[in-house]
Each structure stands twice: as structure tokens, then as C-alpha cells.
Design goal:
Length: 201
């Protein structure tokens, strides 16, 4: 998917299969649709999430954090249905103000069409604008698809934390921390000509 690396939201973006989808910020009016999306996710996808995003109270807290400027969330929507999101979590630790954490989740039926890449690009554009210099993404060693995806996007493994995650069944997993410098991601997009190629979107 090509999203122009642009800051403008909402905007229409093209997926790798040629279809279009709208990228826009998550807002209070989206709660029902957002819950419909999270509640449709298979257990395996929910197993490793830090919070229970199928819970209306958790989503309400999330929106509070968005309104307080602690989280920025972009959703992908088509015909009133949400198919995925990417979030940028800002650090409230003074010495890590330049670091943001990226979380991405795409519905099963939309995977492999460039939506994860497109949402990540959209988040990086926002991160650059907000003065974030380094992006991290965390995943367990079992999340092979996510590891391949983030490596394809130029993220590098930076740390391995043993038995750091306990899933909902109580089983522990090693956690990988990947990182990418934000300016470098922008140069990568520029080098691929992606910022210009999509200017007609
Ligand atoms: C990881 C995830 C966000 C990827 O989303 P997606 O929309 O399917 O990914 P894309 O189609 O944009 O693919 C991006 C790149 O990764 C590659 N990729 C995607 N899924 C892959 C897989 N399972 N195996 C290998 N490579 C894969 C694509 O080929 C593409 O490479 P390219 O940019 O060179 O073309 C999605 O699988 C997901 O929601 N997983 C569950 C949640 C999760 O693990 N999130 C990550 C932790 S924050």
C-alpha cells in the first residue's frame, strides 16, 4: 500500500490488490465499530495483547489517552467497518521523550495486502512531526509473521527479554524488542520514491 508518507488524515490509500481504504484517526464515534473489529479477532491474536481490547472499558481508557495526547491511533476503515489500526504510544519518562512505541493489528482477511505497511508509514509521518526520533515495536518470538513484517520494514532486533510475557493461558514467552530510527524510515520511503509516487492519492 502506498500512503504518501503524508501527515494528512483522513485520506484514501490504495492496497496492494488495487482496492481503496480510508485511513483516519480513531475517535469516540468509532467505539461500536472498533469493538466489532476487536471482538472478531481470533483468540491467538488476542493472546499476546497487553490489554483486553475487546473490553469497552479498556477502549474508553484508550480514547481518554488519545484525547490526553498520550497515544495516537490511526484506523483503516471501509464502508463503516474497521479492518486494522496502528498506534503510537508516547513515553511519559522524561529521558525517553524521543522514543515512541508502535503497535499494529490487522484483521485476518486484510493481511498481506500492504495495510500493516501503510499504517506503519502513516504512523512514522506523525512520529516525525511530533519529534519522535526512535520507534520500538515489541513482539514475542512466536509471532513469526510480525517478525518478518517488521524486518521487511527495516526494523532491527535490539533486545531479547527472556520469559518476559505471560499470555492469557499463563504460559511465558520471550519478548523481542525491535527498533527503527524515524528519520531513517522517512529516507527509506524517499529512496523507494514512495513519497512522490502516491502524490495523486
Ligand atoms: C504483523 C501485521 C501487522 C502485518 O500486517 P499486514 O497488513 O499483513 O502486512 P503487510 O501486508 O503490510 O506486509 C508488510 C511486509 O511484511 C511482509 N509480511 C507480511 N506478513 C508476513 C508473513 N506472515 N511472513 C512473511 N512476511 C510477511 C510483506 O511481504 C511485506 O513486505 P514488503 O513491504 O517487502 O512487501 C499483521 O500480521 C498482524 O496484525 N499481526 C498480529 C498482530 C501483531 O503481531 N502485531 C505486531 C506487534 S505490534
Amino acid at each position: 500500500m502506498n500512503t504518501n508518507g503524508s501527515l494528512a488524515l483522513p485520506r484514501t490509500a490504495k492496497l496492494d490488490d488495487g482496492s481503496e481504504i480510508t485511513l483516519r484517526r480513531l475517535g469516540r464515534d468509532d467505539v461500536a465499530e472498533f469493538l466489532a473489529f476487536t471482538q472478531s479477532l481470533p483468540d491467538h491474536d488476542l493472546l499476546f495483547l497487553r490489554t483486553d481490547i475487546t473490553d469497552a472499558g479498556v477502549v474508553a481508557d484508550w480514547l481518554d489517552n488519545i484525547e490526553a495526547g498520550r497515544i495516537l491511533t490511526i484506523v483503516a476503515e471501509r464502508d463503516g467497518r474497521i479492518y486494522g489500526y496502528a498506534s503510537l504510544h508516547f513515553s511519559n519518562t522524561p529521558w525517553s521523550k524521543h522514543v515512541g512505541e508502535l503497535r499494529v493489528l490487522i484483521s485476518g482477511e486484510m493481511r498481506g495486502k500492504g495495510l500493516g505497511r501503510g499504517l506503519t508509514e502513516a504512523i512514522f509521518a506523525q512520529a516525525l512531526d511530533r519529534g519522535i526520533e526512535k520507534m520500538v515495536a515489541q513482539m514475542t518470538i512466536d509471532q513469526k509473521g510480525a517478525i518478518s513484517t517488521f524486518e521487511q520494514l527495516g526494523f532491527k532486533a535490539e533486545a531479547l527479554l527472556r520469559d518476559h510475557v505471560k499470555d492469557r493461558t499463563g504460559q511465558t514467552h520471550d519478548l523481542l524488542v525491535y527498533s527503527h530510527d524515524v528519520a531513517g524510515f522517512q529516507s527509506q520511503l524517499d529512496a523507494y520514491g514512495m513519497t512522490e509516487a502516491a502524490s495523486g492519492l
